[in-house]
UniProtKB/TrEMBL annotation:
The keyword Iron applies. InterPro entries: Elp3/MiaA/NifB-like_rSAM, MJ0683-like, rSAM, rSAM_sf. This is PA0069 family radical SAM protein. The lineage of its organism: Bacteria, Pseudomonadati, Bacteroidota, Flavobacteriia, Flavobacteriales. Keywords: Iron, Iron-sulfur, Metal-binding. It comes from Gelidibacter salicanalis. It holds the Pfam family Radical_SAM. PANTHER family: SLR0285 PROTEIN (PTHR43432:SF3).
Amino acid sequence: MDSNPTIKGRGAQINLRNKFFELSHEMRDDFLEYCAKEGEEADKNKTLYLEVFPKTIVNKVDSPDVGMGYSMNMYQGCEHGCIYCYARNTHEFWGYSAGLDFERRILVKKDAPLLLEKFITRKSWHAYPIVMSGNTDCYQPAEQKFKLTCQCLEVFLKYKHPVGIITKNSLILRDLDLLKALAKDNLIAVNLSITSLSEETRLVLEPRTATIKKRLETVKILSENGIPVNVMMAPIIPSINSHEVLPLAKKVSEMGASSMGHTIVRLNGAIGEIFSDWIKKTMPDRADKVLHQIASCHGGNLSDSRYGTRMRGEGEIAKQINDMVTLAKLKYFKGKAMPTLNTALHEQYKDGQLKLF
């Protein structure tokens, strides 16, 4: 397994043409040759943070198989660079490529805390869990600089509003005190993504994420502090991490996880070409096998948009994976479960303090 893709520290190795644009930008071979001769960098591979000004921050989720009713994203694009990320396609809506642009053009919503406060204090709003990172990771590297996730947690705490978090970054431990305060009233649930126990696999799949060791430690610390953690093995990719279901379930259960979830990889939209290019460069010895097995889970296609089957797949390989996850849950999570978050307190705190009458 080659852990050194052409563009180091990135998942995608190409920028695809944005399907919404008539024109596109191309890095030509003659330009690359010129740069090499002149000793210049053709691509500086830098991350840019670009401020945007949305009118709203909370989105209603209509998809019936996602498992959340409302989500919010402080950042669009994600420097983690996970090659399989379904959120890549949304970057095209902002005028960028789902490939390298998704990892290097990070859109920052600095007004997120104010927009959140405005949303949950509306008279018509009735508390319902809002999930941070329904699209891109709220604890990606940009959070170290902008601290928007931290500020939003403070808003949730102030108004006693339930919140869920999806992340694969140990940076979440920076906000441990806030999480503990929310947990006292059963207002927080954390979903931590761990796709492998192999650091080698992690490096090529998710180049700028927290190490596996740090993520396992994060599960342990959160659980020890009374913060419920669901570990997401998402996605499971045939012949890359599909053999790790049982050992990963055992390990995260030992670390204190309350439950485990999973999805089977699907490569919708631009992700199919981005992933195919990546795997042929990083795992050329198994690329065709992996792509064929992914397609076998989705009726012969790399993509799958069918509600009910898109997350779990179909066919023999998908059945084997799903059966293995069922066995893992029975073996390592029997008697464990994530709590239902508390929606009863918020109405009393809509003005930011407890109403006595």
